[in-house]
Amino acid sequence: MNDALDGLRIGFLCNQHPTAGRSGSLFERLAPLLRERGARVEAVHGEDGSFRLNERPSWDLTVLKSESAAALHLAAAAEAHGVPSLNSAEATRVAEDRLASAAILRRAGLPVPAFCFAYLGPNRARSIRARFGSWVNRTLILKPACGHQGAGLWTAEAGEIEELAVRMPSGPYLVMEKVPHEGDDLKVYVAGGWMAAIERPFPARGLQEKLGRPADVPEEVAAAAREAGRLLGLTCYGCDFVRGPEGWSLVDTNAFPGYKGLEGAPEALAAEIERAAEERAMEEVL
Question: Domains in the chain, ordered, with CATH?
Answer without folding.
Answer: 9-87+263-285 (3.40.50), 115-177 (3.30.1490.20), 181-255 (3.30.470.20)
